[in-house]
């Protein structure tokens, strides 16, 4: 029950707060990020079957801070769901990067086999 007692914590630019005794809902403040990460997190969280609600706002159109609200169905605390989603999002990004790098290598190999210059 240590998670219930730890109401606020900071993890490298991430501030998490929950109401006392409330494990289903968490508010995450992420800095310095904007809609790029906000939309990605929103998609990944709403795709998660444990999530009941997710939404985010930016503090200002030119600001670099997002407030993310997560509400779960209750089996897992919202903070744990958020951590899982972050890991899933990192895996997706790593997969995209690997595919991109493999495509670049394939392109360069094809050009080299034809003695054509690469860009």
UniProtKB/TrEMBL annotation:
Query: Gene3D superfamilies given for it?
Result: RNA polymerase, RBP11-like subunit (3.30.1360.10)
Which is an annotated GO molecular function term of this record?
DNA-directed RNA polymerase activity
Segment Disordered: which positions? 1-23
Entries under Pfam families matching the protein: RNA_pol_L_2
Subcellular location per the Swiss-Prot or TrEMBL entry: Nucleus
Under InterPro entries, the record lists:
RBP11-like, RBP11-like_dimer, RNAP_AC19
Main subcellular localization, coarse class?
nucleus
The record's GO CC annotations read:
nuclear DNA-directed RNA polymerase complex; RNA polymerase I complex; RNA polymerase III complex
Q: Start and end of every DNA-directed RNA polymerase RBP11-like dimerisation domain?
A: 31-98
Which GO biological process annotations does it have?
transcription by RNA polymerase III; transcription elongation by RNA polymerase I
Q: Which domain of life is it from?
A: Eukaryota
Keywords associated with the record: DNA-directed RNA polymerase, Nucleus, Transcription
> What is the similarity comment for this entry?
Belongs to the archaeal Rpo11/eukaryotic RPB11/RPC19 RNA polymerase subunit family.
Q: Under which name does UniProt file this protein? A: DNA-directed RNA polymerases I and III subunit RPAC2
